[in-house]
Amino acid sequence: MAYVGVMRFLEKRGFQFHKVGGTSVGAVFASLIAAGYNSYEIEELVNDFNPGILTALRGSGPEKIINGIKNKGYYSIVNFEKYLYSVLKDKKKIHFKDVKRGEEYLLKMIATDVRKRKEVILPEGLEAYGINPDSFRIAKAVAMSCSIPFFFQPYKIGEHIFCDGGVVNNFPITLFSDDEIPTLGFRLSSGPLKKAKGVFTKLVKKEESNLEKFNIINIDTLGIKATEFEKGLERRLDLYISGYNSIRKFFYERFRC
Question: Hey, which residues are catalytic here?
Fold first, then answer.
């Protein structure tokens, strides 16, 4: 809903998204924008969304804990992938070839190759795995980018294992850095970027000092964590206002408009 607030502000002023990209929840909204959804349609999707889709899992109590450890994650993201597929299908944007102009993809996202411990830019990075990017489903790529470690089970494609792109790059604002059109980055954080901790620390490439040349809008998420779905839905109006006011402040301070 914070992203919806940002979109609403821009739409009211005649702005249009040319290319979109993101990591994790950013990949979700990037896919919806690329498919042609406007802020009002996305708001309706959020209001109607059943968070149980994200936390469907067999077992309870000790069985749930054992399954979570065994599968390296408590929940499966498969049901959300199916849901997103149906949502994108309504706009006839199923494969990456559907969001392609010439030889360029207008939608990109980040996933993490767990075994190789590296960033994978989707869809073009799929070629290294012998996969045709054009025919790859957008919903599948989003699921790969959203598989939060230890919360969602890792996403497997053959012998390859992927997880949330935020592990290696939680703010991929440079995806379209070579484009002449200015890039706006919407960061769901009220403070500076924090370095990742643990085994993936060496993979983090983005430092705060490298982001100064970009247009970055920090959005206060009101202390709601990425996996607090119910709480986020309960406070969706507050999040919407936070997103709207964040970009409003940016434009008025930067461009006096």
Answer: 24, 164
Cα(185)–Cα(236) distance, rounded to whole angstroms? 21
Fill in the amino acid letter for 37.
Answer: Y
User: What DSSP state is assigned to residue 182?
Assistant: P
Residues in the chain: 257
- Cα Rg, the chain, nearest whole Å: 18
Contact between 119 and 162 under an 8 Å Cβ cutoff? The reply is no
Q: Classify 43 as helix, strand or coil.
A: helix
107-113/20-23 β-pairing: parallel
pTM: 0.86
One-letter amino acid for residue 105 of the chain: Y
Residues 239, 137, 100, 134, Cα dihedral to 10°: 160
Residue pLDDT, tens place only, 196-229: 344 443 444 444 445 666 888 999 999 998 788 8
